[in-house]
Write a structure and sequence with these properties.
5-stranded parallel β-sheet
């Protein structure tokens, strides 16, 4: 399942995501992964979740984000939840490529709760992304 929180900057998407990460880490019987661009969540995400900075791994577009997520899922069968903060920004703010990646991710993450944030105003959100909101 894929869920995307969209909205403009400062609309509370990251705060909501952090709350969901921490709640999942407290209740999950498996692994919880939180992916971010940069290291701004280091002090807000619980130590029980694995926090990964995409900048360290040169993830800079939709194709490499997809491959990165596929590799993470392939390496650990116990993952229950993956959270991606600033997913659209990780994809170079390319809404077309981001929207095209989502159906592929949906197949890949059939048994995983995948939650992402994307800074895009609701009225500017294309249908390929809005479907997951």
């Amino acid at each position: 399942m894929i869920k995307i929180f969209i909205g403009g900057k400062g609309s509370g998407k990251t705060k909501t995501l952090v709350d969901l990460v921490n709640a999942a880490a407290d209740t999950s019987d498996g692994s919880v992964i939180c992916i971010e661009k940069g290291d701004k969540l280091t002090h807000t995400v619980t130590y029980k979740a694995r926090l990964i900075d995409t900048d360290v791994y040169a993830v800079e577009d939709a194709q490499t984000l997809y491959g990165f997520l596929a590799g993470i899922l392939a390496s650990n069968n116990d993952i229950t939840d993956i959270f991606v903060d600033s997913a659209l920004k990780i994809c170079g703010n390319n809404t077309m490529a981001f929207g095209a990646m989502l159906p592929q991710l949906e197949k890949l993450a059939e048994n995983v709760n995948l939650v992402m944030t994307a800074s895009i105003p609701v009225d500017e959100c294309p249908g390929s992304i809005k479907r997951y909101v």
